[in-house]
Design a protein that fits this description.
The chain is mainly beta. It is 6% helix and 53% strand. Its main location: membrane.
């Protein structure tokens, strides 16, 4: 059996296993958590699966290998989450090609950008629940990576499957489950881990505790995590103000798997207490507030997967996601602000597998998504126009057919979204709708060669704040609502190639390569314009972002290496100016060696970023050029033979304490500080 046949067989087995039934759009792979890691004595010289071999459903809503097909999905698995020991999801995914972090290094304020697009132009999902919160420089992702089992990053338009906002892409996060903690074949159906660590930056202490148990068809999990750090410093020795955090994160999960059914009830709660500027993702040190950031996510999932019923494989997730920020301003008016968004929804789909003519194989997915956003902002218990009390109701239907004809795979998909938007005390109610098509073709020319092409359209409906905002922006300047905003729409075409090799340099090794080129044209781009006395959002321009992305991963068992790279170019076609949001060209080189007999892994990452001098000249306050930089990170882990339930991790980030800034927050005049400097970290994990 060749490597391609083996991969296809593996996918089929995973798709048929009831335990692998997942939330629509969630990752299908089950990467090992600390408790599930084999002891070093059991480790062979066989190479591990590369991240491009990970099974995911984010790109197509049906299980597939992330390095196959025409949907470029990058996967961060549990092992890498532990090794990176990141404070935020944004830091965790920073080396994915086409991804850049936007904002000053304050934990909750940083946001990822995909292919030069961020904010509401990326769809975030956690355990299948939409995460729609976005409120003026305050951040969007509130989860401790310690409680995640996998993060998938879909690069490029995804509105066909995920609706409004997926112009740049989709980030799907999945929290840990009982199967990640309970050892297979264990005499006692219980398991868990304790993990503690320290980082020199900010004197950060962190800890995680998780436990799971199974009784018959039932399983339960409980986990808590958190960290506490003071202000961090940059590579020049300057203190980066207002970077302290007191984070606590909890997770509870109950599963019931009778027969071919799988029920999963989960609750995730996050809290960060911090003193931070209101415009937290900028370099400002004024308008400081004592903030408590909280998020509660509740999900109920149901799957049915009977291998004998290929036409009936339903998946349903009902959810409620509530985000609330309570702020007490420490300067100026010393007002008390609250900012709340609650998203309640249901996402349902059914996948049918069948043949029509005998020589074709269909994977037909039909689904619907219904959700409601309710937001409210107050100041001193009165309505706050800067975050207006408003709501929107969304109903969507989608269909996708994956057709396999020999070595050719065709995908055709279409989604319809309908929006109803309104605000308290405002007569300008709106109703908009949009169709989002996608087509792609991938052909397995040779066992190791699969080229593909794809075309997709995506859209972003104007946010409630853009439509109905009012009140003071800053002294002498006021927000003006614009209920006539039109949705942003994008048209993306891309082509790429997937390469898979085995036995390249030694028997049993694996080499995976993916290269993608794309062009995304965006009409009715919404931009916030600041005039002398007013600030207003308008559809002002047509934009184009194009580029090339590449991923290479090699694993030979004892040693491994990877390369990820992207080169992007963005232009404002209306004003004939470069786009300000597009990051510089970048490349990450990584590799390491496994001392298999001793359970030791050592590795290094070298991030190389070019200078960014393509900035618009008609926007004040932007830096004319952001210098290029190189960062070296070193890390090591040890699972001792004499204590296989122990794991030790150490690392040094930014080894040479380099002072640098990302172009996404550099300004003119330049800020008084740089990015985070050298960070020495270590962690110990005990599994049971």
């Amino acid at each position: 059996m060749d490597s391609r046949q083996l991969l296809v067989t593996t996918i089929a087995l995973l798709a048929a296993a009831p335990a692998a039934a997942q939330t629509p759009g969630a990752a299908e792979a089950v990467p090992p958590a600390p408790a599930a890691t084999p002891s070093p004595t059991a480790t062979s010289n066989a190479p591990a699966a590369t991240p491009l071999d990970a099974v995911t459903a984010t790109g197509t809503r049906t299980p597939g290998v992330s390095g196959d097909g025409a949907a470029p999905v990058s996967v961060i698995r549990r092992e890498e989450i532990l090794e990176r020991d990141s404070r935020s999801v944004s830091e965790l995914i920073r080396d994915v090609p086409g991804v850049e972090i936007s904002g000053v290094p304050r934990t909750t304020a940083m946001q990822p950008m995909i292919r030069g697009l961020g904010d509401d132009r990326i769809v975030f999902r956690i355990d299948g629940a939409r995460n729609n919160f976005n409120a003026g420089h305050r951040g969007r992702i509130f989860v401790d990576p310690e409680l995640l089992r996998q993060v998938d990053v879909l690069r490029g338009p995804g509105s066909t499957l995920y609706g409004s906002g997926a112009i740049g892409g989709v980030i799907s996060m999945r929290t840990i489950e009982p199967d990640d903690l309970i050892r297979p074949g264990s005499e006692l159906p219980v398991g868990g881990f304790l993990r503690g660590g320290y980082q020199s930056q900010g004197g950060m202490w962190r800890g995680t505790a998780a436990a799971a148990a199974r009784a018959g068809d039932f399983a339960a999990l409980g986990a808590i995590s958190g960290f506490n750090n003071a202000y961090v410093t940059d590579g020049a020795g300057n203190t980066i103000p207002y970077t302290g955090d007191q984070v606590a994160n909890g997770l509870a999960r109950l599963q019931w798997r009778p027969g071919f059914h799988a029920f999963d009830l989960a609750a995730q709660m996050f809290r960060d207490s911090h003193v931070i500027p209101i415009a937290a993702n900028t370099a400002t040190t004024t308008s400081v507030t004592d903030r408590v950031t909280e998020q509660q996510v509740y999900t109920l999932r149901w799957n049915y997967n009977d291998p004998g019923m290929p036409l009936l494989q339903p998946q349903v997730v009902a959810y409620r996601n509530h985000v609330q920020l309570d702020e007490r301003r420490q300067t100026g008016t010393r007002a008390r602000d609250t900012t709340e968004l609650t998203t309640t929804g249901i996402d349902a789909q059914n996948t049918s597998r069948f043949q029509l003519f005998g020589w074709d194989r269909h994977t037909l997915t039909l689904g619907t998504e219904i959700y409601r956003d309710e937001q409210e902002g107050t100041q001193n218990d009165r309505p706050r126009g800067q975050f207006p009390s408003a709501n929107q109701d969304v109903m969507a239907f989608f269909v996708q057919d994956q057709i396999a004809i020999g070595d050719l795979t065709l995908v055709a998909a279409l989604r319809y979204d309908s929006f109803d938007q309104s605000a308290d005390g405002n007569t300008n109610d709106r109703s908009v709708d949009r169709f989002s098509p996608r087509v792609s073709a991938a052909y397995q020319v040779l066992p190791w060669l699969e080229p593909y092409v794809a075309y997709a359209e995506a859209f972003r409906a104007p946010s409630l704040t853009e439509l109905y905002v009012s009140g003071q922006h800053f002294p002498g300047n006021s927000f003006v609502p614009n209920p006539n905003l039109q949705p942003e729409t994008s048209h993306n075409i891309e082509a790429g190639v997937n390469l898979r090799f085995s036995d390249v340099l030694r028997d049993g090794d694996r080499l995976r390569i993916r290269v993608t080129a794309f062009r995304n044209e965006i009409d009715n781009f919404i931009e916030q314009l600041v005039f002398a006395r007013t600030t207003e959002s308008r559809n002002v321009r047509t934009a184009r972002i194009e580029g090339i992305e590449a991923e290479l991963q090699y694993d030979a068992g004892s040693w491994f290496g990877a390369v990820s790279a992207s080169a992007l170019k963005g232009d404002n076609l209306t004003d004939d100016q470069p786009l300000a949001s597009v990051p510089a060209n970048r490349m990450t080189l990584s590799g390491g060696y496994r001392f298999l007999d001793d359970g030791v892994t050592v590795g290094a990452r070298w991030l190389l970023v070019a200078a960014q001098d393509r900035n618009p000249t008609n926007i004040p306050g932007l830096a004319e050029e952001t210098s290029g930089y190189g960062l070296l990170d070193l890390y090591a882990s040890w699972r001792p033979n004499f204590a296989p339930n122990l794991r030790f991790d150490i690392g040094v980030d930014n080894v040479f304490d380099h002072a640098y800034r990302r172009s996404t927050w550099n300004s003119n005049p330049p800020p008084p500080f740089y990015e985070v400097g050298r960070n020495i970290r270590g962690a110990v994990t005990l599994t049971f």
